[in-house]
Amino acid sequence: MNMQKFFLSKWLCMLALLWVQLIACAQSELLNVNSAESKAAVKVWQTVDVAENSIIVTVNFENVSKTPVLIIEGARGIPEKGRPQKIYPIYEPEFSITLNGQPIQYIGPIGTYLPFKREYFKSFEPKEKAQFSVQIANSFNFLPGEHEYSIVHHHLRLNEMNDLILEYESLPVKFKYWKK
């Protein structure tokens, strides 16, 4: 009788472990589907205007879905509501720049941030658009001479289903810059 209880308890433990794995797998698949849908929900692109000693990057956001998306407001996200439309300096490496696939070092200032909180993420409504411009010429270690670089913007979104903060990238844009 004790042997039956032992095997029964072992069998129940194995069944419970299997159940936990199934749930974890299902949640993982759900997150992957949600991430793909969420990525398509917000269109993000940038334009680059280059002049002597100046590189102005304008980042555009547009919610093309039928549901709101939570995006961080401020650095690494949409501009704060009511912020004047002007060219700002960059305060952290929210862009990655490469030359022939090799990263260009970020040498600009880096802000100090406390851990991100849910209230930092704002609802970006369907059909809503946002835009900001930054000067990046002095924030990256561009090489002397003329080169063609590639730039990508990184922004943060909050997955409401599990409170995970996810980083998304824009498509890369190429630009030429000449540095003395």
Q: How are the SSEs ordered, and which strands pair?
A:
Blueprint (H helix, E strand, L loop, with lengths): L1 H40 E10 L2 E10 L5 E4 L14 E3 L5 E5 L2 E2 L17 E4 L4 E7 L9 E15 L4 E6 L3 E7 L1
Written description of the protein model:
- The protein is of the alpha+beta class and 180 residues long.
- Helix content is 22%, strand content 41%.
- The protein is built from one helix and eleven strands, in the order H-E-E-E-E-E-E-E-E-E-E-E.
- The chain has one helix at residues 2-41; strands at 42-51, 54-63, 69-72, 87-89, 95-99, 102-103, 121-124, 129-135, 145-159, 164-169, 173-179.
- Strand 1 and strand 2 (54-63) form a beta hairpin.
- It is elongated.
- The N and C termini lie far apart (87 Å).
- The model is unreliable at 10-38 (pLDDT under 50).
- Class based on secondary structure composition and strand pairing: alpha+beta
Overall geometry comes to elongated
Low-confidence stretches: 10-38
Q: How many strands, which pairing sense, and closed or not: the largest β-sheet? A: 7 strands, antiparallel
Question: What is the mean pLDDT?
Answer: 81
Distance between the termini: 87 Å
Total helical segments: 1
Helix content: 10-25%
Q: Report the strand count.
A: 11
Summary?
The protein is an alpha+beta fold and 180 residues long. The protein is 22% helix and 41% strand.
Essential attributes:
1 helix, 180 residues, single chain, alpha+beta, 7-stranded antiparallel β-sheet, elongated, 4-stranded mixed β-sheet
